[in-house]
Amino acid sequence: MKKLLFSLAVLSAVAVTAQVGINTENPKATLEIKANTQDPVSGLLIPKVNTTERNAFVKPEQGLMIYNTDLKCHELNVGTPIAPAWECVATAKNVQTVSIEPVGFIGNFKLRDRNNPNTHKVVFRVTNNTSSQLQGIDLSFVKVDGVSQYVDYGQNDNVSIPANSSVDLEYGISGTNWRDAVFTLTYDQYSSASFTLNIDKSVPEGDFSQKGRGDGGTADFGKMEQEYFLVKEDKLASPIDISKIISSNSPLIVEIPFTNGKGNYLAYTSEEVILTDITGAERKIKLSYEEGNLDIGKGVIKAKITSVDGNDLKLPQVALGERKLIAQIPIKLNNTEKGTYDLYAFGGIPDKKINESTKHNFVYMPIVSPTGRTWLNNNLGAEYNRIDSDVFDPNQQAKTMDDKYAFGSLFQYRRDSDGHELTSIQNDEHKRNSEVIYDLAQNFSPNHSKLIYNQLSIGEIPLVDRKYNWVEEDYLNNNLAEWGKLWEVDGANNPCPQGYRPPKTNEIQKEIEYLNRLNKKGAFNSKLKLASSLDDTLIWTLERNTRFVANPSNVYLSGLADQYRVHVRCIKHE
């Protein structure tokens, strides 16, 4: 008997301390179940009961878990055996599988204007908070609290989101803007977000009081400056005298670039700033912009600078090449200081070979794009920039996509501005000036202004599928290091003014990010106002044989043989 009792005691001790393993000999917990790779399905099935069956339980222990087939969730008794309290655990809803936040609006929303769902949109960011991809979820319902704006049902009704990732969903807005509206995207009772659209209330001319309510919009402002070609004297063969007038009927229109934009902004009028005009008298100017919505991420706020008394104000002039700060205007966004908008009088940027016998009497102006980079305002050789042209106006950029006065010169790749590239307007058409020869250059400096074509081509059309160059192939292959540096900022053949060079491909790609349309029209609508005499908009880049192409349906970077003639737009080297 004693032996039996002793044995029971030992067994009892084993029961208290043992760990149980299924499909494993070394369990690391009271119970560990290891998957059997031979089984087609592995896992743990909790007892399945419906709500009626669950309620029939007699004194269920606290912590008891079941799978409720009515609620389709695992339930846990968080109460007591006498007073059970069942709660679902780990459902899609209460762990918020999907979270939603407003991002912003795309497009300009003006009072009484009818919205185009292709260009007027609200954007929400939807996040998958789980470790698995969500597929086929319906995010098509956007409720609109407004008078006539609406979002067509069916947009984004089959969305897939990778694990722990976010997507920005755009919803086209239709209807007319009669008043502000609230847009709400809902996934379920736990996941929704709302965003208020403040429309442009058509502020009367000259009235820029802060009458909009804004929506706490924020943005980081980039370089804020504008330069105007205001020459009073020069040493050129053709004297020029250009000035700029600010009046109530002709304000200066400027753009304020920003990044990280989100939300709406109030109308703003700056404090008055004193400026000395061309006569030496002190005059006052101010900057103002209307309320609106910040483009998502990146964009510009259009503003205007006017004279306070409304009378004509002629800006002061400077000498050719001189740059003078004439005004600094304080800028705010939703009452937050953002620096100053700087206004300069500038004598222009002379062409690299101005006044040389190669007829390069061009003067250019700098512009600052939304990326913060400084470019020449037109292609090299544009008629607007030729001093002895009937349309000479260095401040003027292309007026249309086919503005022949903005086309400019056509360069063979990495060739110097030796005259081969020059063009002119003949019989109202953009024409090349140079003669064509088929004798390849013996080095990188042909010392003449003729176009050099490979003899295996007719004009600019190759006869066989191969790369063509304007220089002898053996010389090129033996001097590739020098060839690669010809258009660098200090390169021997760099056609750009001092401190400028053709753009790199990544610099072009950053500009592409700001295009409102990824096509030829978008390239023209950009700050650069790109125009081309060719069927597509083309400009050379710094990397070998690469050009930027903008056609009616797309923009891209592509290779091209070196002998072909393409426009050059210069960027300031940094």
Q: What percentage of residues falls in helices of 4 or more residues?
A: under 10%
Total count of strands? 45
Low-confidence stretches: 1-17, 91-95, 202-215, 232-240, 461-466
Q: In terms of structural class, how would the helical and strand content be classed? A: mainly beta
Number of domains: 5
Structure description:
InterPro entries: Ig-like_fold (IPR013783). The chain has five domains: 1-34, no CATH class; 45-91; 98-197, Immunoglobulin-like; 218-347, no CATH class; 363-572, no CATH class. It is 8% helix and 35% strand. It contains six helices and 45 strands. Strands 16, 19, 21, 22, 23 and 25 form a six-stranded antiparallel sheet that branches. A four-stranded mixed sheet has the order 3-4-5-6. The chain has a four-stranded antiparallel sheet with strand order 7-8-13-11, with no helix packed on it.
Compose a concise summary of this entry.
The chain is mainly beta and 574 residues long.
Give the secondary structure arrangement, pairings included.
Layout: H1 2-17, E1 20-22, E2 31-33, E3 48-49, H2 51-55, E4 65-68, E5 73-77, E6 86-89, E7 98-106, E8 121-128, E9 134-137, E10 142-145, E11 150-151, E12 159-161, E13 166-174, E14 181-188, E15 191-197, E16 218-221, E17 225-229, E18 245-246, E19 252-262, E20 264-265, E21 268-269, E22 273-276, E23 282-289, E24 292-293, E25 297-307, E26 313-314, E27 323-333, E28 336-346, E29 349-350, E30 363-364, E31 366-368, E32 374-376, E33 411-412, E34 423-426, E35 429-432, E36 436-437, E37 451-452, E38 457-458, E39 461-462, H3 473-478, H4 480-485, E40 500-501, H5 505-512, H6 520-525, E41 537-540, E42 546-551, E43 554-559, E44 565-566, E45 571-572
Parallel strand pairs: 1-2, 3-4, 17-28, 36-37
Antiparallel strand pairs: 4-5, 5-6, 7-8, 8-13, 9-12, 10-14, 11-13, 14-15, 16-19, 18-26, 19-25, 20-24, 21-23, 22-23, 23-25, 27-28, 29-30, 31-32, 33-44, 34-35, 38-39, 40-45, 41-42, 42-43
